[in-house]
Specification:
The chain is mainly alpha-helical and 88 residues long. It contains three helices and no strands. It is elongated.
């Protein structure tokens, strides 16, 4: 399953935001910032990546359900379940 342009754009936007946050964490470590502040920002990066994953999966689900030809792969449900579990 490929991502459609609207879904791809949304996922990329979230990933770019996460990349910016991660760059900030690296700078914090290089500048000797407090551990608590670093861990807080790492948690934010992790959440941003999780949201990007959920957006990719939900977009894929929507695209499969809205397929014009009605052709939904047989293993679609299993594939979606595995993808969701991979984010847990």
């Amino acid at each position: 399953m490929k991502l459609t342009d609207p879904t791809s754009d949304a996922v990329l936007k979230r990933l770019r935001r996460a990349r910016g946050q991660l760059d900030g964490v690296i700078t914090m470590i290089e500048n000797g910032r407090e551990c608590r502040d670093i861990v807080t920002q790492l948690a934010a990066v992790s959440r941003a990546l999780d949201r990007a994953g959920v957006k990719a999966i939900s977009g894929g689900m929507r695209d499969c359900l809205n397929a014009e030809d009605g052709d939904v792969p047989e293993d679609w449900e299993d594939e979606m379940e595995k993808l969701f579990l991979s984010l847990a």
